């Protein structure tokens, strides 16, 4: 991942996490999400079965802020982002989330630059893509 300002981050085996902070999100949501991301058994074991977690494979994380995940497209042709948190809430909560991930992993968490234009490349080995919403925990 590279920003227009030249900030560059990359990881090897692991997960790229696109994070959209919503207006109703809390630190409790960030705690739950960090625990879930690092514990989900989504990496193959020796038998090719998704039975290992990020922690089990000593995987790395790249976390990128992405407010457009909150796009609502029900009306008209222009997405609405009213459900995305404003920067004064989303920046501290994003930073808190990254700290929670750092506390749960063996590698430093790589991040994008909040609010920056970024070129993001992904090699999806699987493909496995999972959408998680902290407001649908059960």
From TrEMBL:
Role summary: An aminoacyl-tRNA editing enzyme that deacylates mischarged D-aminoacyl-tRNAs. Also deacylates mischarged glycyl-tRNA(Ala), protecting cells against glycine mischarging by AlaRS. Acts via tRNA-based rather than protein-based catalysis; rejects L-amino acids rather than detecting D-amino acids in the active site. By recycling D-aminoacyl-tRNA to D-amino acids and free tRNA molecules, this enzyme counteracts the toxicity associated with the formation of D-aminoacyl-tRNA entities in vivo and helps enforce protein L-homochirality.
Reactions that this protein is recorded to catalyse: glycyl-tRNA(Ala) + H2O = tRNA(Ala) + glycine + H(+); a D-aminoacyl-tRNA + H2O = a tRNA + a D-alpha-amino acid + H(+)
The UniProt record lists the keyword Cytoplasm: yes
Organism: Geofilum rubicundum JCM 15548
GO (cellular component) term, any one: cytoplasm
Record comment regarding domains: A Gly-cisPro motif from one monomer fits into the active site of the other monomer to allow specific chiral rejection of L-amino acids.
Protein name, as recorded: D-aminoacyl-tRNA deacylase
Compartmental location: Cytoplasm
InterPro entries, A to Z: Daa-tRNA_deacyls_DTD (IPR003732), DTD-like_sf (IPR023509)
Record family assignment: Belongs to the DTD family.
